[in-house]
Amino acid sequence: MTRRRSGHRVPLWVYAVLTVFCAISYFPLYWMFVVATTDSATATRLPPRLVPGDNFLDLAGLVLETVPFVRALVNSFVIATAIGVGQALVCSLAGFAFAKLSFPGRHTLFVIVVLTMTVPLQLAIIPQYMIISRLGWVDTLQGVIVPGFVNAFGIFWMRQHIVATISDELMQAARVDGATTWQVFWRVVFPLVRPGAILLGLFGFVWAWNDFLWPFIVLKSPERYTAQIAIKALQNSRDIDLGLAMSGSFLATLPLLVLFVFVGRRLVGGIMEGAFKG
């Protein structure tokens, strides 16, 4: 038996079950690495091979020779960072407006925003593409970045977080001190809801990094490919080299793993700090 700090006993079978589920969750990533270090035959071999090989550097070099993968990783990082930061700021502003500001039609507009969450993203592709085409943003990074600055979930998330964290008395005290609406948001509201905004920004970063459909539609030039499009470019129309594709997929996943190693603990700490402040 094991003790927690609170003094409650946690049965060992709970840890055993959690260990099994963690192993199941991590196995696809491990299997991708095994295939990326061997060859395509490993993916269909029975019984399956569970030990990584020594062919990863050769396959990774072939990936870099076949497509401009380093440039694609840089493009993905720029797009994902811009979208993550943009969502954290813009959705915080919109959530603040819906939560604490009074203006005609506020509740109706918020209901419309929530209802857009029920609409499949694919339905917005055609009008969205028409807009960026008129702006001359086809085959540009801003054509991918700007539409990702705002989403209905982010606005809903920040609105609920602000309602639960910021009291009306706190805002009234700031206004008595002579703060404008922008100063109230930037100096009072945003520092208190920053953990939620950071979490939203991280979600936006991961979503933008893994997004394939919208960048594939907008970007035409190989030098502007994202990592996901570059992985698609590794596959020709007649044959798919799974070892090469898995090697590219692992290279595209590696930055996310590094990000979570360095940011994960700080992110959890920030969320807990924000919860106690609320």
Automatic annotation (TrEMBL):
One Pfam family matching this protein: BPD_transp_1
Keyword presence, Heme: no
Topology term for the membrane: Multi-pass membrane protein
Matches recorded under SUPFAM superfamilies: MetI-like
Residue ranges of domain ABC transmembrane type-1 in the record: 73-263
Coiled coil: none
InterPro entries hit by this protein: MetI-like, MetI-like_sf
Segments crossing the lipid bilayer: 12-33, 72-97, 109-132, 144-163, 184-209, 242-263
GO CC terms in record: plasma membrane
Keywords: Cell membrane, Membrane, Transmembrane, Transmembrane helix, Transport
Major localization listed first in the record, in broad terms: membrane
Subcellular location: Cell membrane
GO biological process, one term: transmembrane transport
Keyword DNA damage appears in the UniProt entry: no
Similarity remark: Belongs to the binding-protein-dependent transport system permease family.
Name of this protein: Sugar ABC transporter permease
Organism: Virgisporangium aliadipatigenens
Gene behind the chain: cebG_2
